Amino acid sequence: MLFSIIIPVYNTKPEFILETLNSLKKIKLSKALYEVIIVNDGSDNIDTLSFLENHNFTSEIVLHKINKGLSSARNYGISKAIGKYIYPLDSDDVLHDDFNLFIKELENDDFDVLYGNLMFFGDMNKFHEIPKFNRLRLFYDQNMIPACSFFKKELWGKVNGYDESFETIEDWDFWVRCAIHNAKFKKLEKCAYNYRVILDGNSLSQTKSHLNSFFIEKMRVKIPALKLSKNELHNFVEEYINGENFTREIKEKENQYIKKLEKKINNLNEIISSNNKTIDSNSEDIRVNREILKKIRSTFFYKTFVKLELSLKSKLKK
């Protein structure tokens, strides 16, 4: 069998589960080549239980277990799966129209993990471009692999599955351990699924967000000392500078950067005034300012820095 879709359910609204199941109809593949396993992780919501009991399932396999959390539910479903590849799908998310392109990519079999971009829907409608895989970024910056991505069941076995002690970021921890085992990550420039955003304060990601820092530290303890190539370090720095995090940090520190640059300009002006001479355009101070400006040109306050730069140049010409 080519792949198995694992859908954990815990007190999910029936209408969301139904949307998820209906989205499976987009799969253009013989049902003999894939399976769908639904894992009821000890739900106690009457509506959820009623749906699981009364819905007219066709070929889907429904399993029941006591509640032990998302990682446990995924592991249980995967342990029963017979597909070469595993695709975890949350019970309130839906497959994207391009999901079949990912299925076709499975035929190449030149990767261990296959992922794509994200499309948000629900309380937020937005396309999110996922960056290309970078090991250092995954380890020390942020998780760039969507939770619902294809991976080989064999790889799941090598890393001992999802860590069931994690109450949050369990997917990030899983991808980190896959990377530690030298798994090959491949990105397809399409969306495999649509991620439902629920901003009512009751979703799992919201109710347990305060635990993120604790589990991030717990995850990073697992990362061994690495032998890093210059190329790997260079790529990490370049991607970080050009990425959303750097831009956001720059924006948050806008006033600090402006004041810092203004101070440099004032210092240069004082030097010019006191020494009454022209500063070499290749001097270190000028070079530092240009480097700062170069890195922030993509930000919303670029025009402010342009004015400062022009001011600096005009002063130097006098």
Secondary-structure blueprint of this entry?
Blueprint: E1 3-9, H1 14-23, E2 34-41, H2 46-54, E3 61-65, H3 70-80, E4 85-88, E5 94-95, H4 99-105, E6 113-122, E7 126-128, H5 135-140, E8 150-152, H6 153-158, H7 170-180, E9 185-197, H8 204-207, H9 212-220, H10 230-242, H11 244-252, H12 254-275, H13 284-296, H14 302-317
Parallel strand pairs: 1-2, 1-4, 2-3, 6-9
Antiparallel strand pairs: 4-8, 5-9, 6-7, 6-8
Describe the protein's architecture and organization:
There is one protein chain. This protein has about 325 residues and is α/β, with parallel strands linked by helices. It has 14 helices and nine strands. Helix 12 runs parallel beside helix 14. It is globular. About 30% of the residues are buried.
